[in-house]
Amino acid sequence: GHSAYNFAKSKRKIRVSSTTLPSLINSLRLKKISFLKIDCEGAEYEILNSLSPREFNMIEKISMEVHDMKGKLKHEEIISLLHNMGYSIIFKKHPSFYTSMLYAQKNSATY
Question: pLDDT tens track of the chain, all 111 residues?
């Protein structure tokens, strides 16, 4: 697999435009997100951490690939963040890879 945090052997860089999830939510004037799929090759925590509590409250379900990388935040921190935002979690660690799958659903009392 590829990761945003892997160090490439090449010194060649390519500039690409990007946006943040909060900017996308604002520009589309979203009020509710039924299902959010995240596959961002190592930037999971940064994306989730950029969301405000109001934005988290808009998201009912999340499915994401989670990367545990040396020197970076671990899946436990993502699980803790989501629990604190009112989600129930199912976490499936792959036995032989550094990626796992995480499924989160907003608890009905907080959604």
Answer: 444 555 556 778 888 888 999 999 999 999 999 999 998 877 888 899 999 999 999 999 999 988 776 555 578 888 999 999 999 999 988 776 677 889 999 997 544
Write down the pTM of the prediction.
Answer: 0.78
Cα dihedral 72, 77, 81, 87 sign: positive
Q: Print burial letters for 37-69: b (CB count within 10 Å at least 16), e (below 16).
A: ebebebebbeebeebeeebbebbbebebbbbbe
